[in-house]
Request: fold
Amino acid sequence: MIAKVLFCLSLIGALQALPWEPEPRDANWLRIHEGFVNNTKSKRDEINVVFFGDSITAGWNGAGKPVYDKEYAPLGTANYGISGDRTEHVLWRIINGEVEGLHPKVIV
Reply:
């Protein structure tokens, strides 16, 4: 009986999102994404480096801003970090316009 319960519990993990399948998040996240898309459109020729990531990358717009402004901004960067993002979210963002028309030298 215990083996059956453990097997059923293990299936719950299989029902979660698969990281290789692009997936959006909530309305607030979509607003942030649209801001990134607009930034890409307006600064297309200025962006040489794109940073994708989660809260660590997004933190460069907060506590890490002095370092970001000194070390990375002069390179022509776009910081597209969103707190809580996972692989499937970043894939969705890439497919849905955040790098459309860009020709960056580096994407991190």
